């Protein structure tokens, strides 16, 4: 049955809150590719530091997520527990570490978290970790070296990913400096356009080493030819588009009464949000593998229980409220959005948020 | 006169640092050739035919060195440099080589032919077009519809392209062969490269490429002491799936394989699979060449880092037997040959300077010589020489030496018998008695070989049945696991298990066959020596016949054949997706895997059977030849010798020659060029 994208979709209050939370998290951009493709070099360039290890052989590290801020680094275990980084740094992490989070105050991280994935096709480690992190991203950048670009192993891996990643995906051809002429670069690009039709939204070629050199020497001409500026433009444009799109999608959801059989009422799964994996809903972390339907059902039940308890407590302790009964409380989620919007004047989805709040208030007052 | 050939004449001669091993092999061949000459002089027209055939065997030695690796590793550039002809075969920044292309350096060639291009046979082509070849067949059986559709799409596009390039009736060309008495870049491009549809001249580049199966060029390169055949192949891991099939087939006749890696991403999972595949055949015949070290920023330290990582991976994959890992750069080799060090890109040149300084010292000049050494080509040549010396050259030399020794010895015995007949005719063994003994010997040998062959095959069958069962069980377990976890379980489902085990069983059969051959050969030659003793008395005692060598049993190609289970994750995914229960999965999986495994094991068994038959045939031929010599001695009717003294001198000369032939086989080759070794260790 095709998924209906036009009709308004009634959901329970709790489900709505959850979807709203998902829609407003920062997008995650994954940088993927085979090992030594130049992923870490590229990301270091984007944040203007040398935080990440760059080396000629495969780097042995878990996915590293860069977030905006100055918090101390932490790592995340298989069940979602956050823990401070061990003394010895990345090398001292236990085997089961699922992700490392580093905080850094770089502009590009304001709009999105960026994850440096471990290299694929490394004969000494399985692709599974990188693969699942890739599935949990909102957008992916695939790095391929210009001198050996786009081989079958890359193609088969990328082609097997869900279409949503293809639609927003960016193919970055690194090491452009290792090709001998513009003519050669043009020919490689032409082949890639032919061979990746429908698999990426855009292809661009760049040289991270030239970009870094340009930054160090403040050489604007070199910066322009390195292709790195173009990448930053593409990423920023995409993150704001991504946020807008995600918030717009939420508009179709309406909170409805929970019927006797909740499963009849709540449309599920919501494909536009099903990519959420890593840290969105706390419940999801410990119940990985359980279907989304089941998760929603559990969540609804828990919510209903809590509410019942709360009303019970209110009845017992507090006197009957007067005004509050007619005016529904402002949902926590809306408060959060308002805060975000207030703190960041150029927050990309501002308009949409306010419309959404209206929608929301209208919906719950009915 | 062609462009390419003219261009090469401007090249400076190829330095010979790396050719000492090959020179030593050639010296050995020359010595043997000289013995053949001496034998011809002593034996006259009687032995002309067998001697000529031995000489032909020696002259036809032309080890084949096949270069494989991922797309754009630099195989073509490397083959060009190694042939001393930079730019001869077309190389490019996009996937390019589409035909297995051989360059024969020196040696025999057909008259007036410098280049020859063989098209597919009609049935091969039709199989490819209709079924997508073996890949298509596997995809169909696995039900990998997407993959099958992709193969179909590529094949259709290929046919369309050929039709556009060659006209509607292009299929009439199939089965043909184009020969030229010259070659040049444009001519070669027409047959062997993929071509770029969006580039000028695309109609000429790759015009015949899709229907060409083999290309061969003949060049003369005086620097090489030996004839050699360098074989360039299409890269593996190319999105154009058909190219890979071509490559894996071409490894067949190779004396040794050079796996070319790119330093920037040395050894990814695909490379490793390739190395495993080749080693499952014979790992002492594999050389790893890590190319493009000029693309490293700090090659002098990074090379060591890469080497450590490679050996670690090889060790952990039980591939420790790979003895040759060489680092280098085809670009530097090209520059060294053309004398154009200034034309190197600045970063490539900077890396060269760093390497030369690190290996030599600050005063070491950066010139064509040092660039050639740094390019790793001399080390590669030495490694090739070492392996050839231990394999194909050793075999040919040993074969010729044994045959020649027996021939000379037979002649000496005949002459001796003639002398005796002239002096004091006394028959120790009548022709009838001799025939009876020979007949008995033939029967004994035959029985012995038949019994041993039966044992070897029975043991093989039992072992193979065991590992097949184990493999299928293990795979099913892995699949069920993967099913439970909802992930594609390719990593756990290891076709290498099957290959390695089968290889071990095959190796044992090879060893058993050798033991069988040597035992039967030993008892046969003991019996023959006794017969000679009986025929000519004590004098025969110090000349003995040598039995034939055990047959060469190269590992069967089917061990290296891609099988269904090698295919990538998407296939498994779609498979897992279409089955609701592990039981259902097992039901489809078991027969599939059984067919695949059977395909391999039957082929391996056939190889063993053939080798055993060959052993029996070679032994029969040996007994036949020796029987004829003995019969001639027993007849003693060749007594028209003018002078007895002359015959005695002949006997002495033949015996002396025999001694030299036998003596040389123990002589070891001198060690490899010290300079190159030193450099290799340093890098
Ligand atoms: N010339 C050149 N070298 C580059 C470029 N980008 C990266 N490199 C080099 O490529 C090598 C590998 O880079 P990394 O950034 O470590 O690659 P990676 O993709 O993060 O590798 P893994 O973490 O192992 O998956 C390093 O030696 C870099 O210096 C580029 O644009 N040009
Ligand atoms: N910098 C550098 N470039 C190289 C080296 N060897 C080859 N190249 C370049 O790499 C590109 C690919 O080389 P090829 O020889 O065509 O590679 P190949 O492995 O034959 O590729 P396919 O035939 O397509 O599989 C060409 O542009 C070569 O000039 C090297 O050692 N250093
Ligand atoms: Mg990295
Ligand atoms: Mg090539």
UniProtKB/TrEMBL annotation, chain A:
Dynamin N-terminal domain span: 29-73
Composition bias, Low complexity: 316-327
Organism superkingdom: Bacteria
Chain segments carrying region Disordered: 304-330
InterPro entries for the chain: Dynamin_N, P-loop_NTPase
Name of this chain's protein: Dynamin N-terminal domain-containing protein
Species the sequence originates in: Seohaeicola zhoushanensis
TrEMBL record, chain B:
Main location: membrane
Keyword Flavoprotein applies: no
GO cellular component: membrane
Positions in coiled-coil regions: none
Transmembrane regions: none
Keyword Repressor annotated: no
SUPFAM superfamilies assigned to the protein according to its UniProt record, in alphabetical order: P-loop containing nucleoside triphosphate hydrolases
MF GO annotations: GTP binding; GTPase activity
Source organism superkingdom: Bacteria
Pfam families, A to Z: Dynamin_N
Localization in the cell: Membrane
Residue span, Dynamin N-terminal domain: 65-291
Name of protein: Dynamin family protein
Species annotation: Seohaeicola zhoushanensis
Classification of source organism: Bacteria, Pseudomonadati, Pseudomonadota, Alphaproteobacteria, Rhodobacterales
